[in-house]
């Protein structure tokens, strides 16, 4: 486990799923963690669950990442509470199904607003504080869907997750001189509240296509995020790292041993 004591961290979309797993790993490693999402009730529950895992402070911050002013307020709340921001985990994202034939302009706009604009707005809002850190870290939760694979019903989502990587590469160059690294984690199928809504058949089908035989856990993503946030990862930037139990490797279902 990397020691993240005294690191000041924001995790967006941290009341559930992957974001909560990242927040739990960071809290356990001693970081001060700002848990950010929209639902105030879920924020209270998440803060109560994370409090006491480590020695750092845990706060809840209400944010809608699709709104740049809300992202600005989130960054200000973290600076007020902790004195600065060292790590931004831009994790908040949505994945509603919309087959291409019936996808509406609103369906498309909503996914791009949260997943793409929300990532950019979150980074912009934290930029000044990340620069003051002297060792800032941006860790984006992208996906295998879009950058590497496709799945019917999620073309808009795949486009949004690939767009995050396009953003990351130029951001990594622009921010390198400020000693800020920008990297992306590409999870495969991770058992989260959001994924559970897709139903048991979806989950069982996915498990069959994964050489490791099971879906991942939010903490599997959290451990890579902790490494990317650590001092040891200071020279790693602009990279996208797949965490998927080998899911993108087989050429067909027959190629999955088991
Ligand atoms: P989840 O269980 O549905 O949780 C989503 C989190 O994001 C919640 O905390 C939610 O809280 C928050 N959120 C949603 N819209 C928001 C907004 N506009 N502003 C701020 N917070 C918002 O999702 P998940 O499965 O953990 O996915 C998290 C991230 O991982 C997403 O970027 C997703 O694309 C990516 N991912 C997931 C998987 C997977 O298998 N689960 C695979 C690849 C990539 P509120 O609704 O209260 O705001």
Question: Which descriptors apply to this entry?
Answer:
258 residues, seven-stranded parallel sheet, 7 strands, binds NADP nicotinamide-adenine-dinucleotide phosphate, EC 1.1.1.100, SDR_fam, NAD(P)-bd_dom_sf
Structural write-up:
The protein is of the alpha/beta class and 258 residues long. It contains 8 helices and 7 strands, in the order βαβαβαβαβαβαααβ. A 7-stranded parallel β-sheet has the order 3-2-1-4-5-6-7, sandwiched between helices. α3 packs parallel to α4 (105-133) and α4 runs parallel beside α5 (155-176). The protein binds NADP nicotinamide-adenine-dinucleotide phosphate. NADP nicotinamide-adenine-dinucleotide phosphate binds next to α1, α4 and α6.
Q: How are the SSEs placed, and which strands pair?
A:
Elements lengths: L7 E5 L4 H12 L3 E6 L2 H11 L7 E5 L5 H15 L4 E4 L14 H29 L3 E5 L13 H22 L4 E7 L5 H4 L3 H9 L9 H12 L10 E4 L15
Parallel strand pairs: 1-2, 1-4, 2-3, 4-5, 5-6, 6-7
Helix pairs in contact: 1-8, 3-4, 4-5
Family: Belongs to the short-chain dehydrogenases/reductases (SDR) family.
Keywords: Oxidoreductase
Organism: Mycolicibacterium mucogenicum DSM 44124
Average pLDDT value?
Answer: 97
Classify the secondary structure makeup into a structural class. Answer: alpha/beta
What low-confidence regions span 5 or more consecutive residues with pLDDT below 50? none
What is the tally of beta strands? 7
Bound molecules: NADP nicotinamide-adenine-dinucleotide phosphate
- Separate helix tally: 8
């Amino acid at each position: 486990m990397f020691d993240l004591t005294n690191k000041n961290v924001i995790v967006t979309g941290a009341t559930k799923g992957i974001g909560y797993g990242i927040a739990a790993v960071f809290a356990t490693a001693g970081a001060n963690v700002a848990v950010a999402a929209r639902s105030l009730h879920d924020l209270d529950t998440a803060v109560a669950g994370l409090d006491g895992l480590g020695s750092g402070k845990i706060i809840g911050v209400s944010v809608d990442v699709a709104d740049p002013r809300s992202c600005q307020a989130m960054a200000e709340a973290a600076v007020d509470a902790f004195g600065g921001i060292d790590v931004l985990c831009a994790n908040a994202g949505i994945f509603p199904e919309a087959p291409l034939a019936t996808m509406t302009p609103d369906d498309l706009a909503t996914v791009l607003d949260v997943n793409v604009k929300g990532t950019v707005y979150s980074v912009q809002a934290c930029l000044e504080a990340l620069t003051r850190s002297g060792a800032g870290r941006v860790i984006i939760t992208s996906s295998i869907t879009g950058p590497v694979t496709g799945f019917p019903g999620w073309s808009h989502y795949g486009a949004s997750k690939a767009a995050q990587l396009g953003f990351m590469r130029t951001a990594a160059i622009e921010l390198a001189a400020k000693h800020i690294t920008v990297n992306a984690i590409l999870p495969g199928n991770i058992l989260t509240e959001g994924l559970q809504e897709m139903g048991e058949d979806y989950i069982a089908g996915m498990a069959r296509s994964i050489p490791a035989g099971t879906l991942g856990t939010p903490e599997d993503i959290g451990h890579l995020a902790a490494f990317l946030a650590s001092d040891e990862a200071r020279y790693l930037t602009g990279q996208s790292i797949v965490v998927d139990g080998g899911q993108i490797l087989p050429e067909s279902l027959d190629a999955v041993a088991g």
